[in-house]
Specification:
Elements (H helix, E strand, L loop, with lengths): L5 E11 L6 E6 L5 E5 L8 E5 L3 E4 L13 E3 L5 E4 L2 E4 L2 E4 L1 E4 L22 E2 L11 E4 L18 H4 L4 E6 L4 E8 L3 E5 L3 E3 L6 H8 L2 H8 L3 E8 L14 E9 L4 E2 L2 H12 L12 E6 H4 L3 H8 L13 E6 L5 E5 L1 H6 L2
Antiparallel strand pairs: 1-2, 1-4, 2-3, 4-10, 5-7, 5-11, 6-7, 8-9, 12-16, 13-20, 13-21, 14-15, 14-17, 15-16, 17-18, 18-19, 21-22
């Protein structure tokens, strides 16, 4: 599912900030995001336009030109945008940008909650990949779900809806999403997040698939599945774990015939079976933090966000990016990104 980077929201609460004459803290209905905004520009009950973190806003639109030049970043396409990121102002966390809807007369007739991402030409900013990812042979296959969970801030209803539900909590590794798939003995491939890659010319995705002999294992396994995980190490996201070589950690296995992800138990069984199919290096699973009734242990968003902080299981000197939470039977999943990690992002 594509992220709703820009949307219409309704203001739920405005909080004064001690020692701040020109800014205040704004909270919205139906989500847990909060933004620092110009004092007096919004009031409770107002509709506003909200831009999530990692939104890339057009630099030629005068409405955004109050943003600092330091926020200008370049997309993979070469287009320059204002990147919205997590910041702290007067001690308050601000996650996103919120502006009065009066600045956007072209959307004033639209409804609360409506997605404005494409209409306002907002692009997703992603950190550029370094190294050689390989050459494209086509788009990501349409018979496999892409890897991307939404953030917990979008789901306040989960605290009551899933109170007695077990969740598998795994560490969110800071790397590149990678998928290897096998279909009917005829079609197979290796993909980055968005692209099906050619084997010719190498690239570190195919290099990793060969290192773990994944395609041979899938062929021997004999079922139509996609194995998905995080590729980490040298030349990837600055190699935060200080690894000497690239490694691949599984976090999902997708049943292509059933068009759904395997449950936690079935994924672990399938991975064990795959690892029996070859004498190559064993394919590891992402580190498991715990299995717990998450919304019984954490009853509010602040405690849950604090839980996302912590050190990586791969390198105890590194702050983890956050955690990914999957309902034990695979019905829902979401991520919780560490605010400590977000505030360190450049």
């Amino acid at each position: 599912m594509e992220r709703k980077l820009a949307s219409i929201v309704r203001i739920k609460e405005i909080i004064s900030i001690d020692g701040a004459d020109f800014i205040e803290l704004v909270k919205m209905e139906n989500n847990f995001w909060q933004c620092v905004s110009k004092k007096g520009s919004l009031k409770v009950g107002d509709l506003a336009v909200f831009f999530e973190i990692d939104s890339g806003l057009p630099i030629d639109d005068e409405r955004y030109q109050f943003l600092p030049d330091s926020s200008i970043k370049e997309l993979v396409s070469g287009e320059k945008v204002y990147r919205i990121k997590t910041i702290r102002l007067k001690g308050k966390l601000s996650q996103g940008l919120i502006l009065p809807i009066s600045l956007f007369p072209e959307v004033e007739s639209r409804e609360c909650g409506e997605d404005l991402t494409d209409f306002l030409n907002v692009k997703l900013w992603e950190p550029p990949q370094k190294g050689d990812p390989g050459q494209s042979r086509g788009n990501f296959p349409n018979f496999i779900s892409k890897t991307d969970e939404d953030r917990i801030q979008l789901f306040p209803e989960y605290f009551s809806k899933y109170k007695d539900t077990d969740f598998e909590v795994t560490e969110k590794l800071d790397g590149c999403s990678m998928t290897v798939y096998y279909l009917d003995g005829k079609i197979s491939g290796v993909c980055s997040r968005n692209i099906d890659l050619k084997k010719e010319g190498g690239g570190y995705f195919w290099e990793a698939a060969d290192k773990y002999d994944i395609l041979k294992r899938l062929e021997l396994f004999g079922k139509n599945i996609g194995i998905q995980g995080e590729l980490i190490g040298p030349s990837i996201q600055g190699n935060p774990y200080k690894l000497l070589e690239r490694e691949f950690y599984v976090f999902n296995i997708y049943d292509i015939d059933e068009q759904k992800y395997l449950s936690e138990a079935n994924r672990c069984v399938a991975l064990d079976l795959l690892n029996e199919k070859s004498g190559a290096k064993l394919i590891p699973h992402v580190p498991v933090v715990c299995v717990a009734e998450l919304f019984n242990e954490f009853t509010d968003i602040d405690s849950l966000l604090e839980f996302a902080d912590g050190k990586s299981r791969l390198n105890k000197e590194v702050d983890r990016e956050g955690v990914v939470c999957k309902e034990i039977n695979g019905e829902i999943s979401f991520k919780i990104i560490s605010n400590k990690y977000l505030l360190k992002e450049k």
